[in-house]
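Structure first, sequence second, as always.
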């Protein structure tokens, strides 16, 4: 029996789903000093992060993905490309 080829992740569809669930766009991303928040990354992962910038800087949407901003992961310290964010539910 044949199986279907899995589809690639679509960042625009992930962003649309996240916004429908109550996430915020990167236009309202918290700035440095506002605390830790959850981000949806361009690759589809959800991570705890904080912003290292005192002002919002977003990269415009292009063929690679939707509008995004760089944040820093709390656990690893790696840079992440966030497409949506929300406050943790804890």
């Amino acid at each position: 029996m044949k199986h279907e080829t899995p589809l690639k992740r679509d960042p625009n569809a992930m962003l649309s789903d996240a916004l429908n669930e109550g996430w915020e766009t990167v236009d309202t991303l918290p700035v440095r000093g506002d605390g830790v928040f959850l981000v949806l990354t361009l690759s589809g992962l959800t991570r705890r992060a904080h912003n290292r910038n005192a002002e919002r800087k977003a990269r415009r949407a292009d063929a690679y993905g939707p509008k995004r901003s760089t944040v820093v992961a709390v656990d690893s310290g790696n840079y992440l490309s966030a497409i949506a964010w929300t406050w943790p539910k804890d």
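Margin note: Residues 35 and 50 are 6 Å apart (CA to CA).
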